[in-house]
Design goal:
alpha/beta, 10 strands, globular
Amino acid sequence: MAVAAVAAALGVSSLAACGGSDGSASSGDSAGTGGGGTASKTVTLVSHDSFNATPAVLKKFTARTGYTVKVLKSGDAGEALNKEILTKGSPQGDVFFGVDNTLLSRALDNGLFTPYEAKGLDQVDAATRLDGSKNRVTPIDTGDICVNYDKKYFADKKLAPPQSFDDLIKPQYKNLLVTENAATSSPGLGFLLGTAARYGDNGWQEYWKKLKANGVQVVDSWEQAYNESFSGSAGGKKAKADRPLVVSYASSPPVEVLYAEPQPKEAPTGVSTGTCFRQIEFAGLLTGAKNEAGGKALLDFLISETFQADMPLNMFVNPVVKSVELPELFTKFGATVSEPETVAPDKIAANREQWIQSWTSLVVK
């Protein structure tokens, strides 16, 4: 989830410093033999830029298995996936993390993953297992893509913040929203899918015509939208941003609290809970992985209680393991979305590219 990049904008090294590995990348002859026949003590996790884990947690994985995790970050979710498609069969690493339900069919149709049923999968929320019994991917986390608002802006204007998709096209919210390009950004695509779910095949395009007429701004990435254009974020304040509405996540407000000094009693941003789309992220064993044994062990670990409990305050996502409780800061300042918009995986697969093309023609060109 791109929300982890908030901390980078705030200068927090713990979230920004794990682009290489969380330990020295070493090799040896005792930790298992991968698909290429080479024994290695290093397992490489390829991910989008927002992957983050507490170093001590990854050391626990090393202590349990003998493998050191090397993290290879490859851009945002769509960019990282495209790189793996281009190198399929000869992957950059052993496990890929970060493909979500908006792009899952693209990964599966390209045969990126070797099926593996991770240990502990029976403890994972069944609603997140979109690949069924094929087990080509393992669910890791969920999150809700939603419009966030700058509380101070709306209080100063004595204007109620929007709470629904319908609200966003009202005149009082003209020129206030910034969103990400659906062709280049995972949250941007999720927001588009949310409108398709809300207004249907025959209505979403008309909705976007109205949203464009109401002055929606489109930028390429979540980082640009949230940290440069959105007035409610710490990065946006530094950049003197002028858009008080942004497409982000229901878990974005806790980030603004956690990394503020001093921590405020109330989050400076809120969530429009009637604008949300449920995102599910997966990991999979890459076909052609040099260290299959290490990759399988890592997938087991990613759905262990140890790793799942570490995710909320590192990547600001919800665990998929039912027994893991969210930390108080996450529940106190984040938003609970009881009825997010969803689109069935087969419908996304059948329509995604056409939806993106139509959206681009309507909104960008």
